[in-house]
Amino acid sequence: MSTCLFLTFRCRTEPVTGELAEFAKHLRSAPGLTRALVHTASSASDPYVSDGPPPSLLVQLYFREVHELEAALARDGQLRALTSRDEFPALSAAEITQQAMLVRRFAVPDPVRKSAPGEPYFSYLVSYEGEAEDLNAWHSHYLGNHTRHMAMLPGIRELEVYTRMDWVSALPFTRVHFMQRNKVAFDSAEALTQALNSPVRHDMRADFRAFPKFSGPNNHYAMSTRVIEPV
């Protein structure tokens, strides 16, 4: 099971294109990185929730092993440069949170994206930020039942669920300990909106009402997603 680092940026001023390009270049060269996703704010119409503006930027960094992830977060690691105000003035001044999580991937009927190579696709990122009354019961229901509904969303290309783990980091960013996150991906914002207004979404909402008890925020954000290939 691979690991994924979530870095979430809420920027006071929007980073310029050149800063984002240099940021992507820096991510690409992190040792042990197998995949990077750069999400920027987008929008979609969900009939059940409206959780306010998405974060300015959310980055997912995938590593095969936790020790590779922690090496990138060490004092002399590749990601230390993200704190540089000279190199990344807008990003380093943002409100930044970090969380490392385990990745669970689920099969979908048609995972082949129809968008052109290099073009963005669209993701719906969901976070459960509090606690379950019975975490084992929560994961048993979500991973065994709710994901079956999610996988049938029309046009879905990717489905991942992320669960908590302990990790070591020397970065000064605020650590968060969300109980769970998940991501579904689609070819376009229109495809995402269609899926969110489909009968499957209504089935998902009915299943949501049957979840084991949990507390805390549950946020949903539509994001435009670009893949950064490691060198």
CATH class category name: Alpha Beta
Q: Decide which structural class fits the backbone.
A: alpha+beta
Give a short account of the largest sheet: 8 strands, antiparallel, barrel
Number of helices: 6
Low-confidence stretches: none
CATH topology: the name is Alpha-Beta Plaits
How confident is the prediction overall: mean pLDDT? Answer: 94
* Extended strand count: 9
Q: How many separate domains make up the residues?
A: 1
Please explain how this structure is put together.
- There is one protein chain.
- The chain has 231 residues and is an alpha+beta fold.
- It has one domain (3-228): Alpha-Beta Plaits, CATH 3.30.70.100.
- 25% of the residues lie in helices and 31% in strands.
- Helix 4 (135-150) packs antiparallel against helix 6.
- It is globular and about 50 Å long.
- 31% of the residues are buried.
